[in-house]
Amino acid sequence: MSGANGANGAAPVAPDRPDPAFEVRGVRVPRHPLAPELAFEVGVSDTSGLQVLTISLAVQIAIEPSGVRYDEETRERLVELLGEPARTGALGAPTRTIPWKRVDVLVQPFRGETTVEVPVPCDYDAEVAATAYFSALPRGRVPLVFHFNGSAYYEGEDGRLQIVQLSWEESPTFRMPVDAWREAIAAHYPHRRWLAADEDTVERLRRYKLEHGLPSYEAALEHLLDGAVSPLFGNAEQRRHGVPR
Predict the structure, then answer these.
(1) Which of 3, 25, 109, 184 counts the most CB atoms within 10 A of its CB?
(2) Which H helix or E strand runs over 225?
(3) What sign does the CA torsion over 111, 112, 117, 118 have?
(4) CA triplet 94, 129, 184: central angle to 5 degrees?
(5) Does residue 21 carry a pLDDT above 60?
(6) Are 85 and 92 in contact (CB under 8 A)?
(7) Quick check: 175 and 144 in contact, CB under 8 A?
(8) What is the pLDDT of residues 116-141, one digit of tens each?
């Protein structure tokens, strides 16, 4: 006779080890962090009924650009990052991702369920792929995939400390408002972007700045760009007067 307790009528056997599941529930911008940062709220649940002492959790986060519809201007901005297919919106296979961050966090003791906050530092270097992608999006939400791995420490039935390894199979998704990333960056670097440059390049720019009596590196770059002739934009005089290139 089968029933709720199984085919033989016996009560279901509880798992002998934790098997936590994860859900990304939200994101916020922390107040007064030392550097740009986002904090993701992650729900952790376990149905084993065991006392979980802690979970040493490794979190890998990646961006899935194929999960977004882009307007023409945004596609143009993404060509350098994603390649020519970005012009037509064909961004490759659905599995193509942009790695973003890997962070480690400890989960507090719990039985049944709890929440943990995952702090994620935000890059501001314009040459970092994730920064370039976030900056190109004018609005909307960014599809993220979270991969969880690590070790769960729990109390066995005999009271002894036990350890179980977690696999990478837990991969929940979350659509992050791009405005959250912009808010985190703007709190520290309003209207600024950063570029990495070779030491020799910086030294050449420094000498150029001094030779032309310019007050800053930004002014030196503007001076160089205004004097350059570009097949796309022309020089400064052409841009001011609308002269065809």
Answers:
(1) 184
(2) helix 217-227
(3) positive
(4) 105
(5) yes
(6) yes
(7) yes
(8) 999 999 977 666 888 889 988 888 89
